[in-house]
Design a protein that fits this description.
InterPro entries: SCP2_sterol-bd_dom, SCP2_sterol-bd_dom_sf. Pfam families: SCP2 (PF02036). The structure is a single chain. This protein has 100 residues and is α+β, with helices and mostly antiparallel strands. The protein has a single domain, classed as SCP2 sterol-binding domain (Nonspecific Lipid-transfer Protein, Chain A, 2-Layer Sandwich). The protein is built from 5 helices and 5 strands; from the N terminus they run αββββααβαα. A 5-stranded mixed β-sheet has the order 3-2-1-4-5. A hairpin with a 4-residue loop joins strand 2 and strand 3. The radius of gyration is 12 Å and the shape is globular. The relative contact order is 0.21.
Length: 100
């Protein structure tokens, strides 16, 4: 899946947290995606402030989205880092479920 396909699928499945902004920062060339639950949209640019920023590699994100890597395991092993409101990160499983 490409980043553009991810954004389209997230938008279609309303994969955001209502009233919250969460940035998925994939680093490197992949950049970031902003899940804007305040405006009910997903943007590919990932620019702007967020309540929570989740830093994870693209490969680990795909593994999580496919159910091959548990979010808590990724966090505990340092594959996923959280900046900001941790409670938003805890709700990430619900977002991932919308992608399956």
């Amino acid at each position: 899946m490409t980043k553009q396909e991810l954004v389209a699928k997230m938008q279609e499945n309303q994969a955001w947290l209502p009233g919250k902004t969460v940035k998925l920062d994939f680093g490197g060339d992949e950049g970031a995606v902003l899940l804007d639950g305040k405006n009910n949209q997903v943007s590919e640019s990932g620019d702007g402030a967020a309540d929570t920023t989740i830093k994870v590699s693209w490969a680990d994100w795909e593994a999580m989205a496919n159910g091959q890597l548990d979010g808590m395991t990724a966090f505990m092993t340092g594959k996923l880092k959280v900046e900001g409101d941790m409670s938003n990160a805890m709700q990430l499983q619900g977002v991932l479920a919308k992608l399956r």
